[in-house]
Amino acid sequence: NAGVTQTPKFRVLKTGQSMTLLCAQDMNHEYMYWYRQDPGMGLRLIHYSVGEGTTAKGEVPDGYNVSRLKKQNFLLGLESAAPSQTSVYFCASSLVNRGSDTQYFGPGTRLTVL
Amino acid sequence: AQSVAQPEDQVNVAEGNPLTVKCTYSVSGNPYLFWYVQYPNRGLQFLLKYITGDNLVKGSYGFEAEFNKSQTSFHLKKPSALVSDSALYFCAVRAPAGYSSASKIIFGSGTRLSIRP
Asked: Which end of chain B is more exposed for a tag (fewer CB within 10 A), N or C?
């Protein structure tokens, strides 16, 4: 049981390049989330998904797109990377979206945009 | 709008001494409150949560937190700190079901806990 995994772990992009971050979970969780972590700002929700085939915007969705074609995978895409997107990205999942449910986090992807 | 504040960027404690990491919140209704810990180059790990009931919640690694509704606080505590407790700690809040913000969990900015030998 690997929990939540993320690939890649590190990436450096040039401004304007595109990339996709992959999140996978093997806990049969319905809900999945993408966050970004910036110094002094905690975690901010980018997009989330309440189930296969569905996605919704979070707190800071601009410049990102997501897809949830399979229940176990949640992809985060950057179509045209900008230096402001330099951050550490975390994926998380939870069984359902009741307020009391615990989220399980992946190890993170450190992205640098030059 | 719901929010959570961690007023201290860093807390320094000597090993063996008690520690407190502060958290205050603002949310409609009775909140769900969480503490997560992040070790270097790792994702966040769940420590404990308050849903309802006893105001003192016990969690992993000997940590506990006290919910204080009148002061809207949820401070993390441990009676005797270990060097291995050194990490980044996040408080988080979520509105209960029925509120428009219930789908989102809001994280604080984090407090770096440093335990010196």
From this structure: C
